[in-house]
Structures are given as structure tokens and as C-alpha cells.
Amino acid sequence: MKNKNVNKKLIIGIIIVGAFISSLNQTVMTASLPRIMTEFGITASVGQWLTTGYLLVMGIMIPCTGYLMEHFSSRKLYLISVSLFFIGCAAAAFSPNIYLLLLARVVQALGAGILLPLPQVVAFRLYRPEERGTIMGIVGLTTGFAPAFGPTFAGWIADSFGWRSIFYIMCALAALSIVLGIVKLPEEEKHSEGKLDILSVILSTIGFCGLLTGVSNQGIYGFFSPVVFGPLAVGILCIVLFSLRQLKLPSPLLELRIFQNRNFTLGTVLLIFAYGSMLSVSTLLPIYIQNLRHYSATVSGLVMLPGALFLALLNPLCGRILDKRGPYLLSLAGLVLLGGATFGLSFIGIDTPLATVVILYAFRTLGVVALLQPLQTWAVNSVESKFISHGTALMNTVRQVGGSIISALLVTVMSVSARDNGDMKGIETSFLVTSILVFLSLAVSAVLMRPKKSAEESREKESAAALPEDSSHIIITIAREYGSGGREIGLKVAQALKIPFYDRELIAMEARECGLSSDYVESTEEGLSLRDTAWNWAAQSYGAFETHLFATGNLSEADRLFQAQRQVIRQIAREGSCVIIGRCADYILKDYPGCLRIFIRSDPGQRRQRIQTEYKIPPEKTDAVMKQKDSERAFHHKRYTGQTWGAPSNYHIVLNSSLLGIDRCVRLIVESVRTVK
Q1: Which residue has the higher pLDDT, 47 or 620?
Q2: Distance CA 630, CA 559 (A)
Q3: Long-range CB contacts (< 8 A, 24+ apart) of 521-528?
Q4: C-alpha distances in Å from residue 620, one per residue of 446, 616, 625, 630
Q5: Which helix (H) or strand (E) holds 601?
């Protein structure tokens, strides 16, 4: 795929189609479950396997996807995964019993577990770093919308044409994807000859399946039945053997030593309960609406749609709040909303207005949005940088598997209670137990996640230590409008004062610091734009595992570059007086008393002339280039400093080079420096 002549948009479009149908398939069973239960004569404990089993297999696949994507080409992986998905959908469409339907869902999950992260892999291989944001925004929108739309889509199809028609449509889409993949996707060389530990995969599969089977069977047979404690015992034994093996392997499938980190362990446990409670209510609510209230599957999907849209659309907003306020208050707010709304659902009855259910479910989903991402971010950020990729893979595996088990346990609570008190009472009891678990998580989070003042103080001390110790140093930072002559002014000031001048000289230093190429640093360092915002949206919405799997560390290139700039600028400021051009240096050194912050602006006419003369830009393109450069600098500055670029209150001196001239600006700055000294 490194061939420059390939049609990038067509390739990524084909991959996205496959990811979309696999994302859609995660939630299509929730609205159809009551009809399937009626047709096959099964209980909710068995029926919930159609969703939790699917997620369980996806959870098992997560640790394997990194190996598969390095071992096989994207084309082969795509065709194999879509083919598995097609086979699973075809088998589901013609399933004569629940057992074949469950097997079909497992086959679908095998394909979906590979398909979901594949668009990002292909995007990373096709596009340069500065081009990835836009395409990842599209990927994030697509895969975020699909699960939200699933219950409504499935409900309407099931009512109009029967639940099997859902899989007919999936088959058609999968078949189209296969044909397009064969015809249009180019072949590429495999990237690694890595070795997959098959025994670890087998042990984890048996262990996770045994736990889920035992928990699910408890609602039907009781805890002391052999079909309950037998699978539980086998599952626990295999998980123990799997864990011991991971601790001995030089390259484990999952790096379990990360659990030695207290914050990571706590965040993961809380995430399991939050995810499990989300799955259980999503499973039980359609049963309540369709089987007990006798509404159609379409109505069931519409009741859940507002909450699902909250989940898809509000992730970016929560991400921005997380960046500004941290995870603590956001997590508490999420737990309060989740627990309160779930507690409210425990009081619904046969005569409860559907509008009440819609509102409670929407608020509950809002709590999920505010909770899942902060918990995951807080937990993974506590892990050492070298273990970030292991941490995200481990967390997502445990979240998928543990969430499925918690969900099955809560459905079991419903089944046990319904035996003696009826289905309505069973659902109310399950909602009540779920809310109790959430409130317990709230209490634990309020105590153990509270930010420590000592940590804040240590960060302040670290920041202060990074600044120059000798306050006699004069650091002159010059921010400037594009074409205002700021660089020329800075160079002449440095020559007049006989101090170092840093502009392009910083590029190689920044590149070494962050591990990016000098060419990329030069083209990107002050060019953060809307496409980077799209990247951030995708990172927040698409899921941390997919985001970090092929990214370097847990930061985008733009974030890594700013961190490198900060380190380099502080380093050169410690060495002595100097002039630094741009790069948010005025903000980075704002706490240093010897920093003289200057902003250079100029009239548009003078800027146009300078841009055309110095940068050889055609007159017809000058205004567009000038506007783009200033917009990117302003956006970059706002993103990383929270301040308005060019606002006079943020600088000691603001000069207009078109009114004063270059030499007069230089003299004023030199005189100011000598006055300060």
C-alpha cells in the first residue's frame, strides 16, 4: 500500500464499510432478542449470550489483533475477516435453533474483532502524519454512529420483515465488501514474522468462556449444579494458568505486571462494573418493552435511540472536559447519573409512561459517556510510557470480558428473581442491584480517585525546576504574524545583544526529542489545524485500544511535538540568554521573571509584499496562505496554552513593524532589554 498511485479514498472507503457493518452488528441483537426468545423458547439467561458471547469473543480477539496485523497484510486480513463475518451472518440467517445461532454469532465476532481496528491501521499506512486527522475523523464518526443506530435499525427491520432479515442485509453488505476488496484492494508485504503464543490464546479462551458459562447457567440451574460450578472451576483454573504463563513469557500476550499499578487496577475494576451495568440494562430493557409491555421492536429501538445518540455524539465534549478538568469530577458525575437513572428504572412498572423510560435511559447513557472515557484515561495515564500499548490492550480485554460476565450476572439476578415473583419483579430487582453496584463504585471512586495536593505541588516544583536558575538570563520570545518580519527582527536583536538565536535551529532538537523526522517537524510544528481536532475526536470516540495500537505512545504526533518543544525550550533557556521565535515559548517560560514576551504584527499590505518577495508565493495565493498560517498558529496557541494568540495582555511589548520599520523595532527591543537588566 505504499504505492503512490493507489486510490487512497477508495481503499479507506472499502475498509470503512467492513468496519461499519461489524460495529452495527454489536447492538442489532438487543431489539430483536425478545422475538428470538419467543421463537426458540429460551430464557433471557440464554438469550443474552447472543450479545455477551459476541462481545466476549471480541474481547478474546483483542490481544491477538496486534500480532495478526503485523503478521499478515491488510488486504488478506480484511478479506479473511469479512469472509468470516459473511459466513457467520449467513449461518445466523438460516439458524434452525439457538445453538447454531450462538455459533454463528461467535464466527461473526471472530471477523468483527479484526475488522474494527483495521481502518485505523490502513489509514496510518496510507496517509502521512499530517493527513491522518481528517480521515480518522470520518472513521470515528462511522464506527461511533453504527452501534448507536443498531437497535433502531434492527427493531424496524425485525417488525417489517422478521429478525432474520437483519442478517440477510448484513450478508449482502459483507458480500459487496468481499467483492470490492478482491477487485480494488492492493496487496502489500507482511510487516513482521512475530510469534503468537497459541497456548496462551487457548487458555484465555477456555478460561473466559468457562467463567461466562458458569455465571449464565446459575440463573437456570442454581449454583450447586455441575453445569455451574464445573465451568466456573475450569474457567478459574485456566485463567490462573494463563496468568502464570504471561508472567514467565518474555513477550506475553497480555502484560499482567501492569496490575501492580494501583490506579490502573482500580480504574480497570471500576470500568468493568460500569461496562457490565451498561450491557445488562441494554439487554433487559427491550425485554421489558416488548415482552411485558407488548410494544414492537421498532418502538423498543426508538426508546433507546436518544440515549444511544448521547453515547455517539457527546464523547468529544466529555473529552474536552476531561482535558481541562481531569477525570475525577467527570467520573463522579457519570456515576451519579448512571446510578440515579438506573435506580429510577428499578421503579418502572407495566403502566409507566414510555416517555419516562426514554428520559431515564437517556440520562443513564449520559452517565456512561461521562464515565467510561475518564476512567480509562485515568487508569492508562498512570502506566509507564513503555507499557502504554500493553495497558490499553489489557484494559480493553478485561473490560470486554469482565463487562460481559457482570452483564450475565445481572441477567442471572433477573432470572432468579423472576422465578418466584414474575418477570417484571425480576427486571426491577436486576436494575436495583445494578444501581447498588454503581453507588458502591461511586463511594470507592470518591475516596481513591481524589487528586492529591502533594502530586500537584510536585508538578509545580518540577515545572519550577525546569526553568533557568539564574534570573539574570534574559529570554526574549517573539511571536509574530506571518509575513510581519518577526524572524528578521529576532535575528537582528540576537546579533545586537550577542546572544544565541533559535528558530529553525530548534527543528533538529525537537525531532530528536520526540522521535519524529525533521521534515515532519518543520511542516507541522506550528500547524495544528481542524484536522488535528478531527484526530482528537476520533481518538476519544473510537476507543483507546484502536487509537493506541498503531500510534506511538498515548499521544498524537502534535501532542508529542509540543512536549518536545517544551523540553527543548526549557533546556536552551537554562543555558543562558537567547532569542526564541514562536513555538509557544512565551507561555512555556511565563513563570520565569527574566522572560521578555514580544508580539510582532504588521499591516496586511506590508505582509503581502514581504510574503511575495521572501517566500516566492504568487500574488493570487498570498491572502489565502497568510490567512491559513495565522489561523494555524492561533489554533495551535489556543490549544496548548488556553490563551488568545496576539492578545496584548499576554505580552510585554506589541510592535507594528509596518509603522515602525524593522530597524526601529530592533532598537526598541534592545533598549527594553538593557533597561530590564
Answers
A1: 620
A2: 20
A3: 521/561, 523/130, 524/129, 524/130, 524/557, 524/558, 524/561, 525/561, 525/565, 525/583, 526/582, 526/583, 526/632, 526/633, 526/636, 527/130, 527/632, 527/636, 528/558, 528/632, 528/635, 528/636, 528/639, 528/640
A4: 59, 12, 10, 17
A5: strand 595-601
pTM for the structure as a whole: 0.57
| Contacts for 117 with CB less than 8 Å, ≥ 6 apart | 65, 69, 545, 546, 549
Query: What are the cell numbers at 568?
Result: 527543548
Q: In the structure, how many helices (H) and strands (E) does the chain have?
A: 30, 5
Banded model confidence at residue 148, pLDDT cuts 50, 70, 90? low
192: left (phi over 0), alpha (psi -120 to 50) or beta: beta
Question: Residues 261-272: pLDDT tens digits?
Answer: 888 888 888 888
**Over the stretch 618-667, which tens digit does the pLDDT of each residue have?**
888 898 889 888 888 887 787 777 788 888 888 999 999 999 999 999 99
Residue 112 to residues 8, 83, 87, 153, 592: CA-CA distances in angstroms?
23, 10, 12, 19, 53
CB neighbours of 291 closer than 8 A, spacing ≥ 6?
Answer: 34, 37, 38, 423
| pLDDT of the residue at 521 | 54
How many C-beta neighbours within 10 Å does residue 602 have? 25
3-state SS assignment for residue 555: coil
